[in-house]
Amino acid sequence: MKRSRINEIMAAADEMIRANGFTLPPFAYWTPEEFKARATDARHVIDARCGWDITDYGDGRFDEMGLFLFTLRNGLLGDLQRGGGMCYAEKLLISRQDQLSPMHTHALKAEDIINRGGATLVVELYGSDDAGNYAEDRGGTVWLDGLRHDYAPGEKLHLAPGESVTLRPGDWHAFWGEGGDVLIGEVSTVNDDETDNIFRDPIGRFAEIEEDEAPTHLLVSDYKTRLP
């Protein structure tokens, strides 16, 4: 993805987030220079990979297959492994109309996916086989707004604003906006995007960046190369 395109997506996402009554934290608006100057104080933000995240899954077709994310808060994997401390995470996502977030599951993370505003969020579900692999012929169980729901393989949930689904490890899912763009909330156990995204098809989690202009704000994938 071109950096200029990423900058445009950030600006449009911020506008949609504000239009739905949410405001991002102050560090979201730091310039790269400000982030570098405040890196010591922002150590947890950096280590927990909080901040801007825009991906085309390495496929180069963001409008057809991609996702905007902003990690608001996140614990560390070490906390989750020892069973104490900050064992939770929270994100805002934007799924555009007909923009696919491809079929995947997580080995560790359980998550509430919440339609925070906009159009309808469609979530397609499949279960796992006994080894945890994607199973085209298996369903499973999720919770819709806290109520049990047994889903058939390939079932599509249609979540209106305010509605939510709780997914657990082994619930394979893909999602997209229907009828317009959707602002999504995600509340989960600790989020580890580098190792805990298991895709059905061989794709990448992060975009490859073409630096055609300077970044407005850093992506979480920039932290390793642009911050001390």
From TrEMBL:
Query: Keyword Magnesium: yes or no?
Result: no
Family, according to the entry, reads as follows:
Belongs to the D-lyxose ketol-isomerase family.
* Superkingdom assignment: Bacteria
What GO molecular function terms would the record report? D-lyxose ketol-isomerase activity; metal ion binding
Q: Which InterPro entries match?
A: D-lyxose_isomer, EcSI_cupin, RmlC-like_jellyroll
Instruction: Tell me what organism the protein belongs to.
Output: Vannielia litorea
Question: How would you classify this enzyme at the top EC level?
Answer: isomerase
Name the cofactor(s) required for activity, per the record. Answer: Mn(2+)
User: What is the protein's name according to its record?
Assistant: D-lyxose ketol-isomerase
Catalytic reaction(s) noted: D-lyxose = D-xylulose
Q: What is its EC number?
A: 5.3.1.15
The protein's UniProt keywords, in alphabetical order, are: Carbohydrate metabolism, Isomerase, Manganese, Metal-binding
